[in-house]
Amino acid sequence: MTDRFHGEEMVYHSFDCAVDDPRKYYPSKFLNTLTPNGLPPHLLKLKINCPVILLRNIGPSNGQHSGKRIFLPWITFRPSDDEMFPFQFKSKQFPIRLSFCMTINKAHGQTIPNAGIYLPEPVFSHGQLYVTLSRSIARTNIRVLAASVCDNKKNKIKWQKK
């Protein structure tokens, strides 16, 4: 997706190491291949104006909020799921990930200029629908694709029940 953006692509590598591994059983090349939830990718490829999402709170109390230019520090991450691997490791990388789409819950509190909403199933609650439709600046900037089942014999829409 970054190919569609103009400008030079910059590649940022993470620094990965195992915790308490004096014999180097887990080399960095192996750790670079791991992708636990909540950690940025080993290779972070960015171009100017690519949409990104923060993976950690950097400091909202210090005025670091959406739309403000901030310095992104390298942050050391440790996967929180201890049962995923038989060892612990840490990864140092920018706390961001490319974000061309997001869930309804992640969109809460954000203003999005143009919103394309894909609803393969009905929303869980009216509150989710409100959050989804109220993120855009103007209702003309919202496009919704909602899946439905059509009964051609009666020309009525039937909603699937699970």
Question: What does this 3D model show about the protein?
Answer:
This protein has 162 residues and is of the alpha+beta class. It has two domains: 2-98, no CATH class; 104-158, no CATH class. The protein is 10% helix and 26% strand. The chain has three helices and eleven strands. It has helices at residues 28-32, 104-107, 126-133; strands at residues 10-13, 15-18, 43-46, 52-54, 75-77, 89-93, 96-98, 115-119, 142-146, 149-151, 156-158. A hairpin with a 4-residue loop joins strand 10 and strand 11. The protein starts with 9 loop residues before the first strand and ends with a strand. The model is unreliable at 65-69 (pLDDT under 50). Pfam families: Pif1_2B_dom. This is DNA helicase Pif1-like 2B domain-containing protein. InterPro entries: P-loop_NTPase, Pif1-like_2B_dom.
List keywords for this structure.
162 residues; alpha+beta; 2 domains; three-stranded antiparallel β-sheet; two-stranded antiparallel ribbon; 11 strands; extended
Write the layout of secondary structure elements.
Layout: E1 10-13, E2 15-18, H1 28-32, E3 43-46, E4 52-54, E5 75-77, E6 89-93, E7 96-98, H2 104-107, E8 115-119, H3 126-133, E9 142-146, E10 149-151, E11 156-158
Protein name: DNA helicase Pif1-like 2B domain-containing protein
Domain DNA helicase Pif1-like 2B: 29-67
InterPro entries: P-loop_NTPase, Pif1-like_2B_dom
